[in-house]
TrEMBL record:
One of its GO terms (molecular function) is zinc ion binding. GO terms for cellular component: Cul2-RING ubiquitin ligase complex. Pfam families: TPR_ZSWIM8. This is SWIM-type domain-containing protein. The keyword Zinc applies. PROSITE patterns: ZF_SWIM.
Length: 492
């Protein structure tokens, strides 16, 4: 398999996901991303001889409800579900395995370094004061400060819902949501879940207080933290006392950060979009910056002396073998993995990758050029000379053209599969179709901006370029027709 001589600084490194893990490679090992199973699980796993505990029916039911139903549905259920059961449901709502913590941490930073640091912090007793209140987990992580023996302290707050981490905040103020401290707290909660103090959501506890107890609660709270709380407390008091028509008086109930999700909310993992976009930009900049040289190897000199057909074949073969830029291929594989798991971020991740690729003028240029040369519809005009476009490119550019086209075709293929999902409603499908049409325009605009080497696209080349037409056609598939033919009720 192909060696990558000039490494991209990103999600490239495949096998590293297995052990040392990054989708952004800085090694030149000949490896491919191949899944998220850890070679060695966290050491707290029970030994083979240790008997596994059999859960009671109540625990099994709580677990099932926790994974499948929004907490609002549970709260509003009649007859009311006992408080202790609601607490068990909150307990089982936290993710059970560290695999997804690792995946999302990797997605945010491009490597699993943060996860590994978090694992060490959790194992070495640096996680303290862990408290789960309803669907909110808080904790303190200590870490040696750089260049001193003193320890820094970080406060972390995490919310979760139906086995998904839905938000992470840390006082380290790092831009990434998935810092090592958030990782450490999650790993601690997963591996030592029975040591974590568990309380009902705050709204539920407050509901149990009498009127005078409520007043006491408010006054004690303000007197214990006057500096932090007093200004906000006074503002809320002013709003409550101002008039009956003020917003706070008009809305029934009050927000509860420790309460679970509302009935119509989808459970979705927190995706650190800003970091991810930044990383994709870097991969593309690097890929495009080094495009004609990246895939040079010892055969390149030889390729210049072989017949053109043989050279074309070799180039095409190598683009399929190489999967360059590897980091983006890894991200596409992660997207596939998320689709297979039914993760709602799968399409979102694919969307981010697509939008960033469309902004890469050079890649779009190569994609358009590739289609036009491989379909034998050569109408390129190189300074007035009709000439097959690829013939005017040096062999290394031809490799880049194949690599860009191969990647974009995979993205288009994934969108075809996405839009064919029988679970998509009509509105979402319509929005996706509009998106594909906009993207078709964008590809052409970007491709025109990226055109060089004396090649310009004429109107026929643009008309024949398929772009996102495949997904547009796939969006026309109406599963209801199949259901009718097969006699399956639509609800199934
Ligand atoms: Zn942090």
């Amino acid at each position: 398999m192909m060696q990558v001589d000039a490494p991209y600084s990103s999600f490239d490194d495949s096998e590293q996901f297995e052990d040392s893990s990054s989708w952004i490679s800085d090694s030149d090992q000949d490896v491919k991303w191949s899944g998220w199973k850890r070679a060695s699980p966290i050491s707290t796993d029970p030994s083979p001889t240790e008997e596994k505990e059999v859960l009671s029916l109540i625990e099994i039911c709580s677990k099932c409800v926790a994974k499948n139903h929004a907490f609002e549905t549970v709260e509003l259920y009649t007859p009311p579900i006992p408080d202790n059961l609601q607490l068990r449901i909150a307990y089982h709502s936290f993710p059970e395995s560290e695999e997804e913590i690792r995946l999302y941490s990797c997605l945010a930073s491009g490597s699993n370094d943060k996860f590994k640091q978090g694992e060490i912090l959790a194992k070495t007793g640096n996680v303290h004061d862990v408290l789960q209140i309803g669907f909110h987990l808080s904790g303190v992580v200590t870490q040696p400060a750089p260049h001193t023996t003193a320890k820094q302290t970080f406060n972390i707050a995490i919310t979760f819902d139906r086995g998904h981490i839905t938000s992470c905040q840390c006082s380290c103020q790092e831009t990434a949501a998935w810092c090592e401290h958030a990782n450490a707290l999650c790993i601690y909660r997963i591996t030592r879940k029975d040591e974590v103090a568990l309380r009902s959501p705050v709204s539920e506890s407050l509901g149990r207080l009498e009127r005078d107890q409520l007043q006491k609660f408010a006054q004690y709270l303000i007197s214990e933290l006057p500096q932090q709380i007093l200004p906000t407390a006074q503002r809320l008091l002013d709003e409550l006392l101002s008039s009956k028509t003020s917003q706070i008086n008009m809305i029934a109930g009050a927000p509860d950060p420790t309460g679970g999700a509302s009935a119509f909310e989808d459970a979705k993992w927190v995706l650190d979009e800003a970091s991810l976009q930044e990383n994709i930009k870097k991969i593309l900049a690097r890929f495009c910056g080094t495009l004609p040289y990246v895939m040079m190897d010892s055969n390149a000199a030889f390729l210049n002396s072989v017949p053109p057909v043989s050279q074309e074949w070799s180039n095409l073969l190598r683009s399929f073998q190489g999967n360059d830029p590897e980091a983006l291929w890894n991200l596409l594989n992660i997207s596939r993995h998320l689709y297979a798991k039914g993760d709602r971020n799968a399409a979102h991740l694919l969307h981010l990758i697509t939008e960033e690729c469309l902004l890469s003028y050079q890649m779009m240029f190569y994609w358009m050029l590739s289609y036009n040369s491989t379909s034998n519809q050569h109408a390129a005009i190189g300074r007035g000379r009709p000439e097959p476009p690829h013939m005017s490119l040096p062999s290394t550019h031809v490799l880049s053209r194949h690599a860009s086209a191969h990647l974009m075709e995979e993205i288009v293929h994934l969108w075809e599969l996405t839009v064919m999902s029988p679970y998509l409603d009509k509105d979402t499908k319509l929005q996706m179709k509009l998106k594909f049409e906009i993207w078709n325009q964008q590809v052409i605009e970007s491709g025109r901006k990226g055109q060089g080497q004396g090649i310009a696209f004429n109107s026929r080349m643009i008309k024949d370029f398929p772009g996102f037409n495949g997904p547009l056609e796939a969006a026309e598939i109406d599963w209801d027709v199949f259901y009718q033919v097969l006699g399956i009720p639509q609800s199934e």
